[in-house]
Amino acid sequence: MPLRLTLKPRERVIIGGAVVRNGDARSEFLIENETPVLRETDILSPKEVRTACDRIYLALQLMYVDPQNKERYEGMFLQLVGEVRQAAPSCSDLLQETVNLARAGRLYQALKKAQMLRERERELMNHVS
Q1: Is residue 40 within 8 Å of 8, Cβ to Cβ?
Q2: Taking the domains of the chain in order of start, what are their residue ranges?
Q3: pLDDT tens, 28-59?
Q4: Are the C-beta atoms of 112 and 41 separated by less than 8 Å?
Q5: What's residue 2's pLDDT?
Q6: Cα 35 to the chain's mean position, in Å?
Q7: What is the rounded CA–CA span in Å between residue 92 and residue 103?
Q8: CB 92 within 8 A of CB 85
Q9: CA pair distance 58, 25, nearest whole angstrom
Q10: In what side-by-side order are the strands of the sheet with 18-21?
Q11: Series of mean pLDDT values for 10-residue runs along the chain (129 residues)
């Protein structure tokens, strides 16, 4: 079953490693094969990375959109997970779920879990401040 993708005017999306920007009108696409797709709201650019959990998300994002270099990014991802697990043991469950999804090849779902991890990190940081 194809993925129906509706883009707002000037919205960006990554489709199979290519960054696509929509024109001035709303557009609809059908993606008819298995390929990585990330909407603009889910894309984290390297210059926006501020925290350890952002780095985890970015490593997963790169694994997802650049499968040819997945092993390279996977090493970074696992190292970062270990560092965050040591620094914030309360995040261990979310970290493990993220790792399990990534190891199962369910990278889009792992990204969604990593987004939850980023939100949890923000909550923890707000309590410290």
Answers
A1: no
A2: 3-42, 46-128
A3: 999 999 899 999 999 999 999 999 999 999 99
A4: no
A5: 85
A6: 15
A7: 16
A8: yes
A9: 30
A10: 18-21, 12-15, 37-39
A11: 92 92 94 92 94 96 93 95 93 96 96 96 83
Cα 37 from Cα 24, distance rounded (Å): 21
Alpha helix (H) residue ranges in the chain = 52-65, 70-87, 92-103, 107-128
Distance of CA 91 to the CA centre of its chain: 17
Q: Residue 36 in contact with residue 62, Cβ under 8 Å? A: no
- For the entire predicted model, the pTM comes to 0.91
Amino acid at 24: D
pLDDT at 1 (0 to 100): 79
CB atoms within 10 A of CB 87: 11
**Distance from the Cα of residue 74 to its chain's centroid:** 13
- Only one residue has tokens 């709201």, namely 41
- Specify the DSSP class assigned to residue 105: T
Side chain identity, residue 65 = V
